[in-house]
Each structure stands twice: as structure tokens, then as C-alpha cells.
Amino acid sequence: MEVIDFRSDTLTKPTPDMRAAMASAEVGDDVYGEDPTINALEQRVAAMLGKPAALLCTSGTQSNLLGILSHCQRGEEYIVGAPYHTYKYEAGGAAVLGGVVPHTVSLEADGSVAAATLRGAVKADDPHFPISRLIALENTHLGRVISQAQMWQAREVADEFGLRLHLDGARLANASVATGLSLAELAQPFDSVSLCCSKGLGAPVGSLLIGSEELIGRARRWRKMLGGGMRQAGVIAAAIDYALTHHMARLADDHTHAEGLSQQLGTRLASLAEHVQVAPAHTNMVYLNFADPQVAQQVSTAAREAGILVPASAAMRLVTHLDITSQMIEKTVDILTKVITETVQAR
């Protein structure tokens, strides 16, 4: 049975051509700075984002953590959206390992943090308070592209209070394709950016932290301390380099597939709107919002039996990616329509 997996865009498999690039990669010891494929990738990505330097990391969690730890000292704080990945889904690493205090703030409907909210979060110079040092934002958020105007407003707040600005750009490539803005344009307001390459870009592993030479120097020391020295990791860098060359533009296909999935399911399930709402697609994500969490769980189980893998959460996220074809979208619409209709009618 064919299995179609919408749980995440991290589930992609390396293509045969990517595997060939990995197999032929020239390697050396990266801890000594002698892996030529890694060195070339870091230079390439730094240039793509318009920054002086970059550092290959094992994951987006690691690159975000290195960014925060390289900006902040113990007892200082970073201001972050409460649902953002750096706070909610990265195991509290900045607090546990760096003594950096997160100050969470609410989001606007579009997933951004308002400039007024950021201003209100900055601490006064008082020994009772942690020292505000960093603002950490995210683009995309739940698939939504955050407007560049919002990012520049955050930059103004950072400059006003002498703070630094970090971007979790796990899916910044999707934002670039969706807006037509280059990675450098999207990165311009920020002092540091984390770029994940194992999601829509389709590399098997790896993220990069991009910023100033000084920041990346500190991050390299933190990476070593955290066990992130990867030695002959040029095979990973080669996969990322291949993805940046061959998989960037094709992200538009994922966005098209997500839009088709949303539109077709929205039409087919319109009569069940009391039970499930199909949200408009944003980049490569579609959310099915179920009124009853138990229905979502039953739908997930029944869909799995039919070869469609989706989460069991009431806010059911479907993510399109490199391994999803237009034919799979059509098949998924038919199966999910049937499964959801039968599940609702059986209750």
C-alpha cells in the first residue's frame, strides 16, 4: 500500500542525485576547520543571507540555541512569542544550559509580535529584573509568512533599546519563495538567523546559524561545548548545497499542492463545517480544525489504515513537501473526505 505522509516536511528522503552528491563530497576535519565542503557551504549561505559568516549545526534547535547563547549572558533575557519554536518546542535549552530567561509575549492574529508588545516587554534598568538583551522572532509561523514591515518595526524597537534581533528561519526558504524576496532581504533586519535545511529543502540533516564574524566565533565555541563538532561532515554539507541549488525554487510546488489540498477539502467538506473547518493554505501547510478532539483522533487512525499519515490533534496540520505529488493530493482529498464524513456520521 502506498503511504502518503503529511505529518511534517522533515520526513523527506534524499533524492538519488542528492545521495550522489553526498557520496562524492570532499571531506576533512571540520573541528580543525579543514572540511572544504563545509567551508564552502558556510561561505555560500552567509553570502545568500547577506551576512559575514555562517556555522553548520546539527539541527534548527541547535542553531537557535547557539544564537541565543551567543547573544545573551546568564541572567539576561530574550523576548519571544509564547507559541514560537525557540520557546515552546526546544526543551528550554537557553534557560537550562545558558541561564537565559525567556520572556514570552502574545502574538497578533497574523503570527507576528506587535512593536508595542515588544516595547512593553523590555525591562527597566533595575537590579530586580533580568536584563533584556534579545528579541527572538519566527518566519514562517504556522506556515504564515510574517510581513517584512513587521520585522523592520521589531528592528526599530531593538535599536531603540539597544537589543539584538534573532530570527528562527526554519522555513525562511518557503517565505522567500512565497514573497519573491531574497533570503538576504528577509534576513536584513536581523543580527542572526537560523536557517533549517532538513525541512522543505529536503536535506537529511542540518541547519546553519548566520551572523557576524564575532557572533559566529562565539557560536562555534558553544557548538563545541555542546558536542556539536561533526568532523568529516562534508557529506551533510554536500546534501545541503545540493538542496539550495536544486530544491529552492521547487518549494513553489509544495505551496501549490497545499493550496489545492485546502481548496478541494474545503469544498468537499463544506456540509460538515460544524465539525471541521478547513483553513486556507499558508505556504506548505493546511490546518483542519476539528470541533471535537476525539473525532480528530479517530480520523487520524482511520486515515492511517488507508495509507494517509496525519496528526491526531484537533488542529490537524498537513504539510506538503518534496515527496508529495499532485496525484497524491487528489488521492488524499478522496480518502480524507470519506474518512471524515464517515467518522462524523458515526457519532
From TrEMBL:
Positions carrying N6-(pyridoxal phosphate)lysine: 199
Give the cofactors, semicolon-separated. pyridoxal 5'-phosphate
Q: Which SUPFAM superfamilies match?
A: PLP-dependent transferases
Entries under Pfam families matching the protein? Beta_elim_lyase
The molecular function GO annotations come to: L-allo-threonine aldolase activity
Could you describe the subunit structure of this protein? Homotetramer.
What name appears for this protein in its UniProt entry?
Answer: L-threonine aldolase
